[in-house]
Amino acid sequence: MEQMHTREEKMAAFGRMLDVLDTLREKCPWDKKQTNESLRPNTIEETYELCDALMKDDTDDICKELGDVLLHVGFYARIGEENLQFDIADVCNRLVDKLIFRHPHVYHPSQLGVLDPKPLPYGEDLGENEFAGAKNVEQVLDNWEQIKQKEKNGNKSVLSGVPVTLPSLIKAYRIQDKARHVGFDWEDKQDVWAKVREELDELEAELKHEDKERSEKELGDFLFSVINAARLYHLNPDNALEETNQKFIRRFNYIEEHSIKAGKPLTEMTLAEMDALWNEAKSKENNQTE
User: Fold this and answer.
1) What is the pLDDT of residue 36?
2) Distance (Å, rounded) from C-alpha 254 to C-alpha 274?
3) Inter-helix orientation angle 168-180/237-261, to 10°
4) Does 79 score more than 70 pLDDT?
């Protein structure tokens, strides 16, 4: 096992990263001209690359991609500092104070603002109240959503904290999860299957009518209900769908590779031939997992 670094070494590495970022911002033509707007697409790309590495559980790649994401955090903080808005210390202190404020079962409110003399963006004292007694994961998660409502300049409503730009599948899961934390959820998770079947029946009915607009609406309702079922059974629908995507890619690539070896383009293969290769790829995967 690789030796982990000391606290001093970690702080030195973080400082080295900031030093290099400062140098590049001053001396590199590309880094000089970057703005929040120009960096945003790159940040999205880097985040997805990190997600890919996490899905593959590739330790080296995870480490590398985390660095790329960290670079962007530092870059935005540097731009904020140049505009005299905030710097990396403000970013870190705001994060720490938020974590302390939202964990009254761990921290006392007197620990807020220890590092940052600026006015805190928080509301009422949460130190000695019902939130301080959270003992398990569910209580902590439920309290988290309620505490967020008490922060100054925080979420104005339960669902306002869900980013508008989130991918729709993840957004649906987060919407449902946030509603759950304030008690809006199925009392018995098995009841959700009646809703799933109801939405599927409504979708099939509209498809028979060949009404595209209404069919699309019902498709959305059906997908939302399936995501709800996944959440109730503690399954991550985004991870599940991505695993299926990767599985389909592997098996389809297997078909394509064999078509190339046979000198027969996919367009000239019959569906039966492709199905046979698909099942062959599936069999090989199953044997490898046994």
Assistant:
1) 95
2) 10
3) 160
4) yes
